[in-house]
Amino acid sequence: MCRKLSVFSGRSVFVLLGSLFFFLVLTNADIWVSPTGTGNGLSESSPLGNIQDALDLASTYSPSVVKALPGTYNCTAQPKNCNLLWKGNTISFISRDGAATTILDGNNSGANAAFLFSSAADNPTINGFTIKRFTAKAILADGGGSGLTSFTVTNCIFTGNYENSGLGIITLVPSPSASTLTISNTVISNNIGYAVRVSPPTGYTSITPTLVMSHCRISGNDLSGYDGSVYLLNSIGLTISDTDFVSNAGGITMTSGALSLTNVNFYKSSPYPKLAIKCSTSTVVTKSGYINFCGGKPTANNVSCIGSASSGWASGSWPALTAYDGCGICNGNNANKDCAGTCFGTATGCTHTTWYVSPTGSVTPDGTLSNPFGTIAAGISAANYGDTVLLLNGTYSGTNNGGGLTIGKAITITSWNGLPTDVIIDSSAGVFNLNGNETYDTIIKGIIFTTSYPYTVTAPAIVLTSSSPTILNCKFNHMTLANEGGVAIRATDTYAKVTNSFFEDLYCPGPGGAISAGNPSTGASNPSILTVSGSHFFRNKADSAAGGAIYIGSYASLVVTGSYFISNEAPEGAALAFAKSSPVAIGITATSNSFYNNSCGGCSSRAIISGPSTFTIVRSGNWFCDPNTFSSTLDAYVKCGSSGAGWHYLTFTDGSSAVGAPDECGVCTSTGSSSGNRDCSSTCWGFKVTDNATPQGCCYQTQKDTCGGVCVC
Question: What is this structure's pTM?
Fold first, then answer.
C-alpha cells in the first residue's frame, strides 16, 4: 500500500489538490453587471459594464448566475448589450429588481437581436427583464440549427420588437431530446411578428417536445399575412394555462402537435380579423377550466380545426361551434356548445369591473360609486384588463390626475356620459404618457383636456411612444405649448385612432399645431399610421413650422376620414403637412374631408396640404372651400404628389408652371388632365361658385360647382 502511494510526490499531490480546488470554485459563481459598471463583476459593488462581458466571465463557471443591476442596457451605446451569446453553458441571467427597472433596449437600430443561443449546449434562463425595440427578433434560440434541450423565460416583458421574416419575437428550435421549454409570468405586447414561434430542427418532423406557457399576456402583436401570435410547427405541442390573448392578429396556430388549454381567454383578434385558434384535423385538443372567446370575429369561426369528438372540439359543422357573443356564453341556440351539448364557453374570466373616480374622492375610497377614488391614477391602478375607469363630473387636477399618467393595459377611461361635456382634466403639465402596452382596446373617452388662463402648458396632453390607444369623443382646447409641436397629441411609433374629437385653439411652434405623429425609429420597415375620423380642427396654429392642424413625420402616414379643418394656420401646410426632407412621410388616405379658411398668415407659395413629391395619395370626396389669405397667385391647395398619385402637380389655367388651384375653390375647366384643375384621370378635381364671377369661398348651400355638385363645407 505504501509503495503504491509513494508514486505521488509532494508536488504532485499539491497540483492535484489545487486542480480539485480550482474545479470546485469554477462550478458556481454570481457575476454582476450594471449599465454603468467599471469593475471586475465578482461582486455587487464591482459590476462589469456590459452584458456580454458578464456572460463571457460566467461561461468559465458552470452553472453560474449573471445578476443585472437596474438601468437601461443600451444596444447603440454599447454593442455588447445585444446579440448576446451563451457559448454553450448553463447560465441564469437574472435582474435584481425586476422587469420594471431593468431594460434591454435595442433602440430600433441595425439588425440586432437581444439573445442568440447558437450552441446546442446552451441552457439559458432569463428572468426579470423588459426587452424592447430589437429589430431582428428579441430571442433566436436555435442551438446553431441543432436545437436547445432547455429554455426558460420568466417574469419578462417583450414590447416594441420587430421581426418580419416569418419568425417570432421569441424564435425557438428545440432539439430532439428537448425536455423543458417554458415561458411564464411574461407579457409579449405590441410587437411586429409572431410573439412565439417554435419549429423543429431541419430534418426532424416528428419530434414531440412541448412548449409550456403559464400566466402570460399576449397582446397587440401583428404580422400581416400570417396567422397566430403563438405558432407551432410540425408535431410540437403546446400546454397553456391562465393566459390571455388580446387584440393580436390571431391567437394560436398549430400544425399537428397536441394542444392543452386551461383557463385561457381570447379577446378581439384584431386589427386583422384572424382566428383565435387555428389547427389541423390531427391536432388533439384537451381543455379544462374556462376557455373564453370574448369579442372575436363576428362573422366567422373563432376555432378552425376539425378533430374527433374525443379531441375536445367536435367534428362537423363549424358554425355550431362559434362563440362571438361577447364572452362565449351559452345562449340557448347551440351556437356555443361542444359535441356533448355542454356549455362551451362561460363568462368566467370575462366579467369586468367599473371603478369610479371623483375629483373629491371618498374618506374610505374603494372605487365603488358610493366610495370613489380621489385620483385617476388610483382608478388605473385598480383596473384590470377590460375594466372601466369612470370619471364622475368635475375638474381633475394636481398630483396623480396628470403629469404623465401611464396606463399599460386594455382599459377604458371615460366620462360619466362618454361625451366631452362635464369631465375636465387640467392639462398644464400634460396628462397621459403612454409607452408601450396600449392597443386599440385602451380607450380614452369623453374627456376635455384644457387649462386655465393664460393657457400655457409644459407638455402635450397625451404623449404616445410605441403606443396605439383609441381616443374617442374627446376635446382639446385653449392650450399653448412653448416648445415643439403636437399640443394635444405627440406620438412616435403609433397606430393610434382618433375618433369624433375636437381640437380648438391649440398653439405651438410646431410642427403640428394639434397633433404631431410619426418618425418611428424602426424606419420604413415598420411605419407609423395615425387614423383620424369624424373630428374637427379649428383655429389651431403652428407658428414656426409646418402643419397647422396635423403634422406627419418621416416613415409615417395619415388616414383621415370625414373630418373638418377650419381656420388653421401654419407657414406651410396650413391644415396638414407631411415630412418633405429625407426621410419623407409615406402618404395620406383622405376621404370626405372639408378644408375651409386655412391660411399661412400672409406668406406666399404655401399649401393647405403640403408634402413630398414622392408621396402616396389615395383620396375621395374631399372639398377645398377656402377663401384664403395667401398673398401670391402661385399658392396651392395641394402641393405634393406626382402625376401618378391621387393628387398631382396641377398647373394654372393661365399656363404658369406653379402647382395648385389659383382661385379659392379649385375651378373646374373643360381642359384636359395636363392643365386646369383635373386629376390624372381627367375627372373634376375642385369646384367653384357659378352665380358669382368672383369666387367667395364656396360655402353657401345654394352655390353649385361646374361638376354638378353642391358646395358643402
Answer: 0.55
